[in-house]
Design brief:
The protein is an alpha+beta fold. The protein has helices at 7-28, 39-58, 72-76, 94-103, 112-119, 138-144, 178-183, 219-251; strands spanning 64-65, 79-80, 82-90, 148-153, 157-165, 190-200, 206-216. Helix content is 44%, strand content 20%. A 5-stranded antiparallel β-sheet has the order 3-7-6-5-4. The chain has a two-stranded antiparallel ribbon with strand order 1-2. Helix 1 crosses helix 8, helix 2 crosses helix 8 (219-251) and helix 4 (94-103) crosses helix 8. It is globular and about 65 Å long. The two termini are 20 Å apart.
């Protein structure tokens, strides 16, 4: 399992959230064991947490460019500012692993319901990847609702994409297409793509990797999504990990 350099922003945000939490508690009852003995000190701790959260949210997200495309994900998102990468080794041939990727359901993914409930802030929502039916393959739910199938090479790679930030009042002029996704560079958008890539990793074994990339078309969209991304990143990372574990269990 690997991490993007932008995790620094996540660390700053969560140090700020923790400091803010203890600041709030100390305002009610100073935590002497933490060195906070007065409500003034508690207020300083709360203010420090707030500043750290803002600093983490607005930390610039550096741009990455793929020089030599190797995967379909490279071809659809060759430039991106935020990303997340995970991998797992599975003791099964890649044909069986690919079927597992295509077949795994929400109820097979540990903590899926809990993490998506938190992501929705406990609110009800329409059917989609954050509120998936229990026995339908999760990738089918995604492509039937908010995601577009960008590319698929059976037994090797599948790539899905969606717009996570759009300009106010924007409406699509027609049916989304993979080529349209690739060509979208107008200001105000942030596009997300996720892939699952399977490769041989020795006799009877397969390496599965999944990467999520975010490409923002302008600075405003980048700032908006970076703040969100750095807040949800720990849950997103845990979900990807449990997703890969579910694929492994099904394939093996």
């Amino acid at each position: 399992m690997g991490y993007d350099g932008a995790v620094l922003g996540v660390v700053i945000v969560y140090i700020g959230l923790i400091a803010g939490f203890f600041g709030v508690v100390s305002c009610l009852k100073p935590l002497s064991w933490l060195g906070v003995r007065t409500r003034f000190q508690a207020s300083l701790l709360l203010g420090t947490g707030f500043v750290l959260v803002l600093a983490g949210w607005f930390l610039p997200a550096t741009e990455t460019r793929v020089v030599a495309p190797r995967t379909q994900l490279d071809r659809f998102v060759p430039v991106y500012q935020l990303s997340e990468f995970h991998s797992i080794r599975i003791a099964a041939p890649r044909e069986r692993v690919y079927v597992a990727i295509r077949s795994v359901t929400a109820d097979e993914i540990s903590l899926f319901r809990t993490l998506t409930w938190i992501r929705r802030l406990g609110r009800s929502s329409t059917e989609g990847i954050l509120n998936a039916p229990p026995h339908e393959p999760i990738l089918d739910v995604a492509t039937r609702t908010s995601f577009l199938l960008l590319a698929e090479e059976p037994n090797h790679e599948i790539v899905l994409g969606t717009a996570v930030v759009v300009p106010a009042g924007w409406r699509p002029s027609g049916r989304p297409t993979p080529e349209g996704f690739k060509a979208l560079h107008e200001p105000g958008f942030a596009l997300a793509a996720i892939n699952f890539l399977v490769e041989d990793d020795g006799p009877g074994a397969t390496l599965v990797t999944t990467e999520t990339r975010i490409y923002a078309t302008d600075a405003s969209a980048r700032r908006r999504f970076a703040a969100y991304w750095r807040t949800v990143y720990p849950g997103s990372s845990l979900l990807r990990y449990t997703w890969l574990r579910a694929i492994k269990r099904r394939a093996e």
